[in-house]
Amino acid sequence: MAAVLALLDLLAGEGSANRFEAVVEEARRQGVTGADLRTVERIKRLALGIQARLERRQQWSAALAALVDTASDLASPHTVEDTLKIITRRARLLLGADVSWVTLPAADDGALRLHSLDGHVTMLNTRLRLPEGAGLAAAVLAHRAPLWTSDYLTDESFRHAAELDQWIGAEGLHAVLAVPLSRGTAFAGSLHVADRSVRHFSADEIALANMLAEIGGVALSRAVYLDETLAEMSALRDRLSRAEADLADARGLTEAQGALLALALDGCAPQLLVEECHVRLRAPVLLCGPHGTTIAAAGDLSERGEAFARARKAAGVLLDPAPVLLQDGIWSVPVLAGGHPLGVLYVQAGPAPTAGTAELLRYAARVVAVLLSLQEGRGPVDGQFRDELLEDLLISVPRPRDLLQRRARRLGIGLDQPHVVVIARVEGGAQAHAVSRASTCARRLNGLQTTHESDIVLLLPGTDPGAAARTVHDELSSLPGGPPTVSGSGPVSDPGAVLHGYREAARCLDAMTALGATGTSASTHQLGFLGLLLSDHMDADRFIQSTIGAVLDYDAQRLTELIRTLDAYFDTGGSPTYAAEQLHVHPNTVARRLERIGELIGSDWQRPERALEIQLALRMSRIRRVLREHDEPAGGQDA
What we know:
- The protein has helices at 2-12, 17-29, 34-75, 80-95, 135-143, 162-171, 203-265, 270-281, 305-315, 355-375, 380-394, 401-410, 431-444, 465-476, 497-514, 529-534, 540-558, 562-571, 576-583, 587-601, 608-638; strands spanning 99-105, 112-118, 129-130, 147-149, 176-183, 186-194, 285-288, 294-298, 324-325, 330-337, 340-348, 419-425, 448-452, 455-461, 485-492, 521-523.
- By secondary structure, the chain is of the alpha+beta class.
- It has a six-stranded antiparallel beta sheet with strand order 3-2-1-6-5-4, sandwiched between helices. A five-stranded antiparallel beta sheet has the order 8-7-11-10-9, with helices on both faces.
- The termini are far apart.
- Mean pLDDT is 77; it is low at 529-538 and 634-639.
């Protein structure tokens, strides 16, 4: 009875197993034998079993408490990496293992990689990648259930991976337990614990690892969502910051545009406008005219003068309104009015200006164009008056001459001064650009421009219609669709004569088209005898003088017979020998005279078209001489 009580005391006091055995030995020494001794031994075994179950329950309770602590720790917000580190650290401590880690699929190729190792002593695990289907992790994900091995390297029940086996051997690991790490309904990876000794994992240890993996999976899901949310919030903050910056830039751009436009509408000097551009752009600004002359400058240009000079030289004529980077961070923006260049704005804004700066550059160039146009009287009202005046000059209904001249004087044009009429015909779809360019040209030359019967008509001051036609042709040749066909006539010095000049230029233009001379420029005077036929006023004297006048003057001054020689040459079919016989001179004399004629009227005088005009001029000169000789005696008799 004393032995039983001693065993119960030991059980109540949680004594060690050897003390239980000492009580049995004491009973034997005291003479307890037979059935009584067997009862004492049975009670000992029962007491040890009860004690083992109590210890197991205590261990389980401690493990559950550790799980609760882990769950509490994971309940706080953590990043994915911090969450994985907490899981592996608690797994190693909970199971009393030497090493723990997590395997997760890689984001790039889906292969399994080791993460958040705890307790390791080597660095062979750096970026360790497991081939597809290899290792205990692949078997766990395939079976969706915990798996363990008492000695990893000797276990052939799963496929091995050389790199992982090398790391397992370097760490000295033997027993490995792997449980699936789930995220919701999906399996994200696996949780591993390992010992450096051969051992078997109990059901309680496997259950603890499994519960920890489930808790860790939930925490991992939340950490992933948290990281994604933080990334989205960061992206939203960046977008908000960019939006606020864009809004501030837009407000600044609007304010700058308003300030520049207000200065232009107030009629300020270009220097003041350029200085405002310098303040708004925070960069040196230079405004040059269409020929490179400096109109205004602002900013520190002392050290940048050479750079601006090189930029101006390299820029050339720019017709694209977009800013162009030249060199040394200098941007050029053409100042255009109706497609016509009024100058160039140069700004040293650096190699990569912001979008707001680029927009402000374009706007500044437009404001400068407005200012220069206003200062040069190129407003829309002025242009409308000019167009209407020329349209009234081209209609057949007579208008009071004094009224037309007064309207012209208001525009600074004197219709009593010599003017030429120019007509331009543009092919293709460049009509609108051509009208704008021609209007700019007319204003620049202090003339008039309008569109009449689908053609562009200009009235320009001057006496040379051919030169005026070439000027207009060169002005419009750079437009797309091919060069225009341009004709000229005149000069005219009366409002009523403008219509006649227009009709003459129109006939010249139609003749050029019929002759296949499209895309060129000419005047009625340049068309020779054809121009004589097209002219409203048959000016035979002018035709004769422009064709063989030099030869006539030479004969009159030196009393030579070059005209007779020219007549004889053409009468004999262009034969110097027969011409010499007709003139009763030596052929060498005819040859020398013909050379002199070539020097006077050009070496190409024997070309068929020139020869035809020369023969016509000779006949008209002969008829004029006969008529004058016929009138002189009559005039003398009357006298």
